Amino acid sequence: MSPISRGFHRRHQADEPAGRVPPGQYVTKDFPVLSAGPTPHTRLENWTFSIDGGQTAASWTWTEFQALPAEKVTVDIHCVTRWSKLDTAWTGVSLDTLLAAVSYDAPYVLAFCDGGYTTNLPVADLTGGQAWVAYSYDGGPLPAEHGGPARLLVPHLYFWKSAKWVRGLRLRDVDEPGFWEMYGYHMYGDPWREQRYAGD
Amino acid sequence: MEPLEDLVVDGNAIGGLLIEVFGTEMTTAVGTCGSCGMVAQVAELAVYRPGLGTVVRCRNCGNVLMVFVQARGVTCVDLRGLASLVS
Amino acid sequence: MAGTAVRGRLTWQTATVSSVADETARVRTITLSVPDWAGHRAGQHLDVRLTADDGYVAERSYSIASAPGEPLAITVERLDDGEVSPYLTEDLRPDDEIEIRGPIGGYFVWDPPGQAPLLLLAGGSGVVPLRAILRHRSRTGSSVPARLLYSARSLGEVIYQAELAQPADGVEVIYTLTREQPPGWSGYARRVDQPMVAEVAWPVARAPVAYACGPTNFVEAVAADLVALGYQPVKVKTERFGATGGG
Q1: Nearest CA among C236, C228, C169, C170 for reference residue C208
Q2: CATH topology assigned to domain C118-240
């Protein structure tokens, strides 16, 4: 039985939900950098974003990507490590725009990234104005340590699903676990139902 | 903000975790990278701790050698990136 | 094999705080009493675990500041945005209990006897395990020449300053104060770089061994400088603390 450390308490108490903060989260003004590996530094002239695994495929160079209609969005983001950051401002291309370029009927994707990171998502959570490939944060180019040149942005799920350094999506018939999901993180990851780990 | 490199530590920092997993001191254990063949003591491997888990990489090629995730009282251990680990 | 005879308990034990002592404005040494403490090797660390009354648990690692045979002590630096270090450096008091696990570490350790001149390179709170090594060297009557190159932001941030001002025979302490120097300071006043390491390092011909501890960037820079000077990589031991001492 562990002794209680007199007077010790966690640093960040979970904030009152008030409809904006999911259970167990605290609000931060910082933007913590969490990384499972070295920061990739892909040159824009070598960067592409592609979607494959459907009946047709699509791929964009950086220049082509920048020419796509982009949206400015302000969203709250929630990390499974318990911090939430409110009113974050991004510019990116909607996944509705990108997925419209391919013909597919697969229900799932595996997002893949420079550095080897992957994460899985249902297509239904990427469409309908719920997700973007973001290349600008807070009015400037997305910094490399936060996933630049571009990252996935899926704010209604825990932020590990908003894959940094994203390079494309692989459409799949089966929901296959990505990097963290393989080690026990939740396959879906809804912060409002506190789906942090498999079985939650 | 700190330069990102400062967030990376080495195998010394996970000595306790390795004792939990392997039941013995492992920082002097010698690992061989399954991707590039680099040989190094665990103490000298690159360790990333993004809060979701611990990711241990080869300093030479960046290959993921070991992953540890502790959740709900269970530790998930993946050593597939190592060709060998000898203590 | 020499030096592996001491085996730490692999499970958590309850330690009682016997005393606390401030080293600097942000750094405190905590001396612990642990039943059946089996001893440790210079350079090893402890894992510390705290449990709040709501069941919240936090764990951190701290280098052991004491030499083998001395009362067990850790030295903790308070980090502004830390969770555990503010508690340990401000709230913890004698007779409080914390849980510890260890000692841990078989790589970043130094045991006599040995002939190899010692080069110790400390970045900030990286001095803690190196101080344990120096105290162990003294207590065992070792005469290997030792040099400590200690990088700190200012004299006020130097840990163990009084002790290091009176080093044992055969020990030299060289400071570099990177942000602020006292009036009349004639020592190094910049971040450690290759020319400084070249001036301080034992010549390769003397078959020295080096221990570098501190923030990752510091450790990697000095280790690379030593290898560039001809030190064998296997003779340069490194312990990276990350950006800070651990939180």
Answers
A1: C236
A2: Rossmann fold (3.40.50)
pTM of the predicted model, to two decimals?
0.94
Question: Which residues in chain C have Cβ-Cβ distances shorter than 8 Å to B73?
Answer: none
- Across the interface, whether the CB atoms of C83 and A11 are under 8 A apart is answered yes
Kindly report which listed range (A10-14, B49-53, C215-219) carries the lowest average pLDDT score: A10-14
Q: Using one digit for the tens of pLDDT, what is the confidence trace for A51-99?
A: 999 999 999 999 999 999 999 999 999 999 999 999 999 999 999 999 9
Dihedral sign for Cα atoms in the order B36, B42, B43, B46: positive
Would you call B51 and A116 a contact, using CB atoms and an 8 Å cutoff?
no
Interface of A with C in 3-62 (CB under 8 A): 3-11
- Which subunits count as partners of chain B given 3+ CB pairs below 8 Å? A, C
Partners of residue C101 in chain B, C-beta under 8 Å: 16, 19
What is the topology classification, in CATH, of domain C9-104? Elongation Factor Tu (Ef-tu); domain 3 (2.40.30)
pLDDT of C217 strictly over 80: yes
Tell whether B41 lies on the interface with C, counting CB pairs under 8 A.
yes
Residues of chain B positioned with their CB less than 8 A from the CB of A37: 48, 55, 57, 62, 64
Q: Distance between CA atoms of B18 and B21, rounded to whole angstroms?
A: 5
Q: Could you give the CA distance from residue A98 to residue B12 in angstroms, rounded to a whole number?
A: 45
CATH topology of domain A47-193: Sulfite Oxidase; Chain A, domain 2 (3.90.420)
**C25: amino acid identity, one letter:** A
Distance from CA of C41 to the nearest CA of B (A): 13
Q: What is the DSSP letter of C92?
A: -
Q: In sequence order, what DSSP letters do the residues of C96-156 get, joined into one string?
A: -EEEEEEEE-SSS-B-S---SPEEEEEEGGGHHHHHHHHHHHHHTT----EEEEEEESSGG
Q: Which chains touch A (3 or more CB pairs under 8 A)?
A: B, C
**What is the mean predicted confidence (pLDDT) over C15-29?**
98
